[in-house]
Design brief:
two-stranded antiparallel ribbon, cytoplasm, globular, SurE-like_Pase/nucleotidase
């Protein structure tokens, strides 16, 4: 199986390197690594369209090479799919291991999850995997210590058995690994965040431009059983299926019965 490994913490990040070594040891995996040349955390599904991407080879300590780009995690997936590596095209996208969890509503900001979503968009199965720090934080703040070994082993086994996992087409697996020895693995839905953002004025520059912080650093979450947030808080690996279909089906029926046609009538009369 041809596996693309990428992330949003950068090609030198410890989480990616530990996972790279685990995946490279799996028989039958043809692994290529394409990742940002620096940290691109919380960049979401950003892409680079207004300039060419810079790409260079990076030598790893086991004698293999990867590719580092000044683009985004999504750019990395597109580079692989479009043929950056000669005679090689990915069959699976693996993004991670992210430094810090990607839980609940936070996944909409995550570059790690965005890379996996790009794989799904391109018709490929995908896995995003993230690691809680030893501080056991439940938000996007980073602790200063991580142990990626258990997550890397779990992800490698997941890839080995992917053909036997009930993963529908157009779906990725978002995996979050708790700090310490996991008590088990649960399939969980996305949880709900409680953001506590506020506007903080931090100073004024010459010319009158003001500086503000707009995000808080202590988000909470709704403690709902069956969610990824609850699972990781309890010490379990959370595995969540995610897809790109954002349509709210129940609302679609209500909208179809609304008289939108009349909103066109004034504009039609003006044209006449």
């Amino acid at each position: 199986m041809r596996v693309l490994l990428t992330n949003d913490d950068g090609i030198e990040a410890e989480g990616l390197q530990v996972l790279r070594r685990s995946l490279a040891a799996v028989p039958g995996i043809d692994l290529q690594t394409i990742a940002p040349d620096g940290n691109r955390s919380a960049i979401g599904r950003g892409i680079t369209t207004r300039r060419p991407l810079m790409v260079g080879e990076v030598a790893f300590d086991d004698g293999t090479v990867g590719y580092a780009t000044d683009g985004t995690p999504v750019d990395c997936v597109r580079l692989a799919k479009l043929g950056l590596v000669p005679d090689w095209e990915p069959q699976l996208v693996v993004a991670g291991i992210n430094h810090g969890a990607n839980l609940g509503d936070d996944i909409t900001y995550s570059g790690t999850v965005a890379a996996a979503l790009e794989g799904v968009l391109l018709g490929l199965p995908a896995i995003a995997i993230s690691q809680q720090s030893a501080a056991r934080e439940m938000d996007f703040r980073l602790g200063d210590r991580f142990d990626f070994d258990e997550g890397a082993r779990f992800c490698a086994r997941l890839v080995e058995e992917l053909d036997h996992i009930p993963l529908p087409g157009g779906t990725l697996l978002n995996v979050n690994v708790p700090a310490g020895d996991a008590l088990g693995v649960v399939a969980a839905r996305l949880g709900k965040r409680i953001y506590r953002d506020e506007l903080k004025f931090t100073g004024e520059e010459e010319g009158g431009r003001r500086k503000y912080w707009i995000y808080g650093d202590d988000p909470g979450y709704q403690e709902i059983e069956g969610t990824d947030l609850a699972a990781v808080a309890a010490g379990y690996v959370a595995v969540t299926p995610i897809h790109l279909d954002l349509t709210y089906e129940a609302g679609l029926q209500d909208l179809s019965e609304h008289d939108f046609q009349r909103l066109l009538e004034p504009a039609a009369r003006e044209v006449e």
